[in-house]
Amino acid sequence: MQDFFTNPIFPFLFIIPIIYFLILRPQQQRVKQHREMVDNVRRGDTVVTAGGIVGRVAKPPQKDDAEITVEIADNVQIRVVRSTLSEVRAKNADKTDKS
Question: To which H or E segment does residue 47 belong?
Fold first, then answer.
């Protein structure tokens, strides 16, 4: 039995679960949360892209469409890739967040 604990592979067997619970699992949860946020984007929501562009969703996005149309100023619309959205604020969140 003592040979098992002196085996050089034993520390790795101990470290693998720690890595999973401290690094991999939280990352998987963040990815799932981001995917749900992007899938629930609605027309009129304020979005922030990874590049820092803030605008309102102009057209309701289709479920399988990879891009959405965002209005960044009056009569100025751009198409952005859905996966680049870093934050989504609901329509009514803008009115209540002002303090």
Answer: strand 46-49
